[in-house]
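Progress note, project year one: complex with calcium ion.
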Amino acid sequence: MGLSTIILAAGQGTRMRSDLPKVLQPLAGRPLLGHVLDCAAVLGADDVCVVYGHGGEAVRGEFAGHEVRWTLQAEQLGTGHAVQQAMPGTPDDNQVLVLFGDVPLLTPGTCRRLVEETPAGDVAVLTVDLDDPTGYGRIIREGTSVMRIVEEKDASTDEKAVREINTGVLVCPAKKLRAWLDDLGNDNAQGEYYLTDVIAMAVADGVTVHGVKADTWTEVMGINDKKQLAEAERALQSRRVDELMQQGVGFADPARVDIRGTLTCGRDVFIDVNAVFEGDVELGDGVTIESNNLVRNSKLGAQTVVHSNSHIEGATTGTACEIGPFARLRPGAELADNVKVGNFVEVKKSTIADGSKVNHLTYIGDSEIGKDVNVGAGTITCNYDGANKHKTTIGDGAFIGSGVELVAPVSIGPGSTVGAGSTISKDVDDHQLVFERGRRKTVPGWTRPQKKGAK
Ligand code: UD1
Ligand code: CA
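Model obtained:
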């Protein structure tokens, strides 16, 4: 049987108090709806439909690359009405799984359990027991069977005492769901078409409704405001860190690390406090990330050490590189093996070959640096003439003294030495010593200007 996933994402999210639509609020750097779409993708649903409304085109635009059936719910008349909008394109023979765009922590495992444990033709709802069920729809059972769901605002005192609540996630055969939705009314406290009323209709038609309990509350928590968003962020982060620790990754403090994307680690990786990983990051065997580092879309080779307070984006390193403290690797920084990039050094769109060192206060941009090169403190590749960028090439074994300006386009031959303080604007051959700096001028007996009015 095919699976259709219908994701409800039309609600306004007033309590976020934000111009950004609720389902676009970021959780671990990805919009809430993105997490739900990821879950649907892992499930391998052959039809994914998103019911959208508030935030309209912004929501669609954010997921332009996804194969999704978008259905507009122009007016938000309730969860039942929302699902109904998606039914015209839903194949009759499919099983429908209803998910919520603001319930981002639900795992594919739980969804699969719900779908697989529901015999063909039956209905299932995902529930959870809460100490304080206030505000949620209550699951009303007779024996083990679920008979109906009653919303908080429509519930009697007895019903309000029920602690098993509706998470909103539901499995239902498409053909039957279509028929029940067509019969929904809105004669209730909120004047809405409730999806939850489908349960009593199913029971009336002799269909068995299963109530399946979620393992944890966090997995099914709905996000309505910034406080819940922050809670969900912590829950998701701790889930990710737990997974990595099981794989053998060491953390100084599992609560003080953030992974906003995919972090892949080899053996014996150690991550100190306040490390933030964004996008796709790969850390090879034995990599150490010291405290206060940002690493974004980068691949760091085995045994590489990133000292504190570095900012690394779009970079790659080979084996046993040393970066920082206070280093900045920008997109296109490609370090080979045993390369050192020290404090207050910025590297952009440049390759640095094996064993080279750029240790202090330096800018390397649009450059190709050979093996075993030493770049002295305060050296700058002047890559920009105000209009265009130009390339600097430094050959194997060259030694660049401190405070050198390399005015690109320029190349320094292998084995050459550039004297400190030089401004090099013409190519240098191999194995030479070159100076390019002004001669010393002296003015004997010179006195400094005096401050006016001073005695
Ligand atoms: C709903 C359930 C309630 C459950 C709770 C779990 C109903 C009637 N009630 O209540 O039993 O305990 O979720 O969080 O289903 N949406 C639309 N279009 C609409 C209305 C809602 O797309 O017209 C979307 C919202 O964006 C949201 C989801 O459906 O993602 C739930 O809507 P919401 O209004 O928050 O439902 P609750 O009152 O919380
Ligand atoms: Ca809600």
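Residues 222, 224 surround calcium ion (ligand 2) (CB under 6 Å).
The radius of gyration is 31 Å.
No further modelling is planned for this target in the current period.
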